[in-house]
Amino acid sequence: MTENLDPREGSLTTRPTAADRARALLDPARCRGLVPHDAGYLQTAGIEIPATRGFGQQLMRTRFYAGVYQLGRPIGLRVASALQAPGRDEDRARTARSLRLRPGHTVLDIACGPGNFTGTYGHAVGRDGLAIGLDASHPMLRRAVADNPGPAVAYLSGDAENLPFRDGVADAVSCLAALYLINEPFRAIEEMARVLVPGGRIVLLTSLAPGGRRDRPHVMVMERLSTMRMFGRDEITDFLRALGFDEIEQVTAGLAQTVTATKR
């Protein structure tokens, strides 16, 4: 709890911290609680982080990659999309607008990395809102706490395929430049849908197979060499539609796609 001076009464009032409010969203059937880490983030108890399956996942969880991420991610996405890469202030603001964030909202940033977007979400939802960044990489979470903290921001270690939250706790969810590294990406999307309220927004930025076709031999070779999934043009949009989403919009550029949708 934190103490705040109430100007109307001239007295101190106790106010739940972002960590306190994150704990209140947990599903006890899925998670036994949150344990503070000495680096400032929270560790989920009772949820096992899946083992890595390839070089890409292994690299994401190293301290070295967390250190060079700020440089490498924008360069890589710029090459892939031939557009200005997310990560700059205007791109973070654009994503917050796509999520339709308002003061008081709760937003989850799945596979948040160093919290570049989580911190921006915290500003957008204000002191009465909550922005939670969740990632499987401890080095990434250390950097997130150091670089992108905030009074409405909390960071958790966790599994995107088994979110620790109750159903319908979030007004918005994002997963940016990470879905292609998750072992079971469609299971992760199902989990994101589960924790959204009706009317909640989702934004997914991920890979796109060359020509939009995943079944071509050269795409299979790319996947095998990179250990990253290349999604077909309609895979994600069709899946969201089947889960009951509407207002589905897809923007493609090069080997990248951004999909936004609203849960009915």
Give a written overview of the molecule:
34% of the residues lie in helices and 27% in strands. The protein is α/β, with parallel strands linked by helices and 264 residues long. The protein has a domain at 17-200: 3-Layer(aba) Sandwich (Rossmann fold). The strands form 2 sheets. A 9-stranded mixed sheet has the order 3-4-7-6-5-8-9-11-10, with helices on both faces. It starts with a strand and ends with a strand. The relative contact order is 0.14.
List keywords for this structure.
11 strands; 9-stranded mixed sheet; Rossmann fold; 34% helix; 264 residues; two-stranded antiparallel sheet; alpha/beta
Principal-axis shape: globular
Terminus-to-terminus distance: 35 Å
What's the architecture of the domain at 17-200, going by CATH?
3-Layer(aba) Sandwich
Please estimate the helix content: 25-40%
What order do the SSEs take from the amino end to the carboxyl end, as H and E? Answer: EEHEEHHHEHEHEEHEHHEE
Q: Going by CATH, what is the homologous superfamily of the domain at 17-200?
A: Vaccinia Virus protein VP39
Q: Ranges with pLDDT <50 over ≥5 residues?
A: 5-9, 61-87
Domain Methyltransferase type: 108-204
Protein name: Methyltransferase domain-containing protein
Keywords: Methyltransferase, Transferase
GO molecular function, one term: S-adenosylmethionine-dependent methyltransferase activity
